[in-house]
């Protein structure tokens, strides 16, 4: 059992290796432009390592944890735009990623910026 906070650089390295930044454009005819954009960051780990997922959630103080019984993984997922703006983006700007995922994070932050300014509600922004 892990009784202390995780090292922030360890979390960044773990996200670098196993995490993902998601941007989804979903067809939704109820929307003016016919689409909705969702964003998230997530990390899935074996049920044997679930304590790490809970410690990451605790350390970054954001997100939710889900259990997938099909593949027996626990998933930490942050999709709340306020948590992404106030927790996730500042966190990974301070504890930066080292692999190609850093470029993914930069794209992710640009999309979040577009959402924050509501440009995504225009054809050009979409």
- Mean pLDDT equals 92
* Helix-strand topology string: HEEHEEHH
Rg computed from alpha carbons, rounded to a whole number of angstroms: 16 Å
> Could you name the CATH homologous superfamily?
Homing endonucleases
Shape: globular
Helix-and-strand structural type: alpha+beta
Strand content: 15-25%
Q: Which class in CATH terms? A: Alpha Beta
Within the largest sheet, what's the order of strands?
A: 1-2-4-3
Q: Determine the number of helices (DSSP H or I, runs of at least 4 residues).
A: 4
CATH topology: Endonuclease I-creI
Give the proportion of residues in helices.
40-55%
Q: In whole angstroms, how far apart are the ends?
A: 45 Å
For the record, the CATH architecture stands as Roll
Count the beta strands.
4
- For the record, the count of structural domains works out to 1
Largest sheet: 4 strands, antiparallel
Can you walk through the features of this model?
The chain has one domain: Homing endonucleases (Endonuclease I-creI), CATH 3.10.28.10. Helix content is 41%, strand content 25%. The chain contains four helices and four strands.
Offer a quick outline of the entry:
The chain is built from four helices and four strands, in the order αββαββαα.
